Amino acid sequence: MRTGELRTVSIESILSESRDVWTIRYADGRRALPGQFVMVWVPGVNEVPMSLSYLGKMKGFTFRTVGKTTSVLSLMHSGDRIGVRGIFGNSFAAEEGRVLVAGGGTGIASVVTAVEEFSRDHTVDAAIGAKSADELFFTERIEDAAAETVVTTDDGSAGEKGLVTQAVERMMDKRRYGTLIACGPEKMLYRIAKMAHEKGVEARISVERYMKCGFGICDACSIDGHLACVDGPVFDANVLLSTSDFGRYRLTPSGRRVSI
């Protein structure tokens, strides 16, 4: 069992990406792959999982301020120190053929590295979406790496008006893809997984579940017995569709099963 040695790192930079979304960069030479994550400890507050949005020697994670821990993180400055454990979890993979990457909301932070890494050996298309223009981020990074990028917003303030799932469906109707990669709100992921299954496309889905430990001991991130931290966070879509929880239920921090 790999618990990951806690190491303290100095924040090299902190950047506001969009409304309430921030990226923290720090030096770390450990090898990481698209879709993997670290556990970030904020001294005196809490430890939270963060998907890596930068993979090189100057790593980074991107987050939205949704609670006390992320709010404190957003107020930090260059030179402040945080704790990091990991790299944890499995990673995205791409089969032969064209790749379609979909990101919704903060899920964009989890898939941006897949667009950049897989575009080296594959033709990659991307669909990203948010509620409004001021919630979009990493658009330029994705457009620079992808062959085609479709941007959607619920209110039409940027790109196409509509849902990212609508863009994904249209793109899958237009072209044959070997792999579909996605991260975002679970209702969105459920619809994308169903589409991929119906079209016979291999789909790799990164799920966002509450994690306490990051190495499989607390059971807080269980999806019908599959642990997001060690069995995931990237799953084959058919595995997720075979569960009764995916797209329907999640566990609260206290372990109570509630509707999504």
UniProtKB/TrEMBL annotation:
<dbReference type="InterPro" id="IPR001433">
    <property type="entry name" value="OxRdtase_FAD/NAD-bd"/>
</dbReference>
<keyword id="KW-0411">Iron-sulfur</keyword>
<dbReference type="GO" id="GO:0006221">
    <property type="term" value="P:pyrimidine nucleotide biosynthetic process"/>
</dbReference>
<feature type="binding site">
    <location>
        <position position="213"/>
    </location>
    <ligand>
        <name>[2Fe-2S] cluster</name>
    </ligand>
</feature>
<dbReference type="GO" id="GO:0046872">
    <property type="term" value="F:metal ion binding"/>
</dbReference>
<dbReference type="InterPro" id="IPR050353">
    <property type="entry name" value="PyrK_electron_transfer"/>
</dbReference>
<dbReference type="GO" id="GO:0051537">
    <property type="term" value="F:2 iron, 2 sulfur cluster binding"/>
</dbReference>
<dbReference type="InterPro" id="IPR039261">
    <property type="entry name" value="FNR_nucleotide-bd"/>
</dbReference>
<dbReference type="InterPro" id="IPR017938">
    <property type="entry name" value="Riboflavin_synthase-like_b-brl"/>
</dbReference>
<keyword id="KW-0285">Flavoprotein</keyword>
<keyword id="KW-0001">2Fe-2S</keyword>
<keyword id="KW-0274">FAD</keyword>
<dbReference type="InterPro" id="IPR037117">
    <property type="entry name" value="Dihydroorotate_DH_ele_sf"/>
</dbReference>
<feature type="domain" description="Oxidoreductase FAD/NAD(P)-binding">
    <location>
        <begin position="103"/>
        <end position="189"/>
    </location>
</feature>
<feature type="binding site">
    <location>
        <position position="218"/>
    </location>
    <ligand>
        <name>[2Fe-2S] cluster</name>
    </ligand>
</feature>
<keyword id="KW-0479">Metal-binding</keyword>
<keyword id="KW-0249">Electron transport</keyword>
<dbReference type="GO" id="GO:0050660">
    <property type="term" value="F:flavin adenine dinucleotide binding"/>
</dbReference>
<protein>
    <submittedName>
        <fullName>Dihydroorotate dehydrogenase electron transfer subunit</fullName>
    </submittedName>
</protein>
<keyword id="KW-0813">Transport</keyword>
<feature type="domain" description="Dihydroorotate dehydrogenase electron transfer subunit iron-sulphur cluster binding">
    <location>
        <begin position="208"/>
        <end position="238"/>
    </location>
</feature>
<dbReference type="InterPro" id="IPR012165">
    <property type="entry name" value="Cyt_c3_hydrogenase_gsu"/>
</dbReference>
<dbReference type="Pfam" id="PF10418">
    <property type="entry name" value="DHODB_Fe-S_bind"/>
</dbReference>
<feature type="binding site">
    <location>
        <position position="221"/>
    </location>
    <ligand>
        <name>[2Fe-2S] cluster</name>
    </ligand>
</feature>
<feature type="binding site">
    <location>
        <position position="229"/>
    </location>
    <ligand>
        <name>[2Fe-2S] cluster</name>
    </ligand>
</feature>
<comment type="similarity">
    <text>Belongs to the PyrK family.</text>
</comment>
<keyword id="KW-0408">Iron</keyword>
<dbReference type="Pfam" id="PF00175">
    <property type="entry name" value="NAD_binding_1"/>
</dbReference>
<dbReference type="InterPro" id="IPR019480">
    <property type="entry name" value="Dihydroorotate_DH_Fe-S-bd"/>
</dbReference>
<dbReference type="GO" id="GO:0016491">
    <property type="term" value="F:oxidoreductase activity"/>
</dbReference>
